[in-house]
Amino acid sequence: MPKSTDDLFSHDFKDRPFWWDRSPLDNPDPAPLPKNVDVLIIGSGYTGLCAALQTARGGKSTLVIDANEPGWGCSSRNGGQISTGIKPDFDALAKDHGSHTAFEAHREGLRAISSIGDFIQEEGIDCDYRVCGRFYGAHSPRHFEKLKRKINAQQKGLEVDAQLVQREDQREEISSDFYHGGIVQTQFASVDPAAYHRGVLGKVREAGVIVEGFTEALGVLKRSKGAGFDIQTSRGAVHAAEVVVATNGYTSRLTPWLHRRVFSIGSYMIATEDLGDDVARSLIPRDRMVVDSRRIVVYFRLSPDGRRIIFGGRVSLNETDPRISAPRLHRHMTAIFPQLRTAKISHSWMGFVGWTFQHMPHIGRHDGIWYSMGYCGSGVALSTYFGTRLGQQIMGQEAGRTVLSDLPFRTRPGYYGNPWFLSASVGWYGFLDRLGI
Ligand SMILES: Cc1cc2nc3c(=O)[nH]c(=O)nc-3n(C[C@H](O)[C@H](O)[C@H](O)COP(=O)(O)OP(=O)(O)OC[C@H]3O[C@@H](n4cnc5c(N)ncnc54)[C@H](O)[C@@H]3O)c2cc1C
């Protein structure tokens, strides 16, 4: 057992994403910014790049800018778990928006998961994409019963292939007795997120898009009479006919209307050191993605080479430093896998996911500015899918239509972009999780 938290870190520890070892962020020498473009996209994650691919291939001159290196945000930091991602269940959505909208919104989630696989295959992106299935562990007997009821009463037309796993059979999925059984969702998949981003970035550049890192948008000014926008950046001004905001969890006062509607929540990850040929594989023998039923969820998986565990979650009421979150995540990990108590941490990092008050992503246009954001922690498939839809909408294509554009994007009275309620919510949900309810 390591003697102090410092002993938990490997000698080559890095406080940056594990994924960047294989796919370092790439920022070629800056080129002069064009003075005029058809489309300017702020944010170079999956959303921005997928929208850019559509507009550039449709013949529009397209510039993508990012305040940091291209891909610096969540799109190169995430867990690489590919799921449907629509959080509210059918009944909750139907209550708010009617059953037709609820049905179509969930259909969009299902389309998102299948279309990312098709996209990766069609574009030939090398990113360890695998339809490996996901084990969803019940953290209490009560949650196991809930899961059982849920998969037996799936909405017709929205079924996902889900197999119940009794606690006594659980070790076939995960070498742990932590959970009270669970389900396996076989359609869910995995990817190396930074390799995926790098692959999409290559396609975008091939399509003629200019992608400029270290170019922060500082102001967006609408010209009168539909004459487009003047965007002030840290490297000069650009005029664009269309502007897209693809900043998700990094949305700021640059766009006050969006800042009041999407808030940032830190999610934290660690990677273990290389555990050798068999140790990690023996813990998740079928190489599934894993999440659990806690409200303050943890999520984990094998690294693509099967030699490490990549483990994520939220471990503090307020945002913290990756060196502080690492030992806490290690404790969560060893509660599930006591076998890993001597395993060291080689990487620790965090990123900001974009959350909304409706727990739903939103895509649309406000005051002439296009946006897609608020994937609520499940954005790998959704940002690819809705980024693409957004690009198609800009091109005026019918294919871009989505029922999510019809959902009202609500804020709360008195909320101006400071999520003061977050630490209280994390504390309360953590309390409920400990009670198993
Ligand atoms: C630790 C972690 C784990 C996650 N795990 C999963 C997972 O396993 N599965 C899953 O589906 N989802 C996961 N997610 C969520 C997923 O990664 C995101 O939903 C998705 O990547 C969002 O992509 P995006 O393009 O919308 O935003 P991002 O990739 O975050 O890109 C936004 C970009 O906007 C830039 N920006 C902001 N303001 C400006 C400005 N003024 N000027 C210029 N640029 C600006 C930022 O620098 C940033 O690069 C995870 C997220 C985190 C943080």
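^ flavin-adenine dinucleotide complex. The CA atoms of residues 76 and 194 lie 4 Å apart. The two ends are 32 Å apart (CA to CA).
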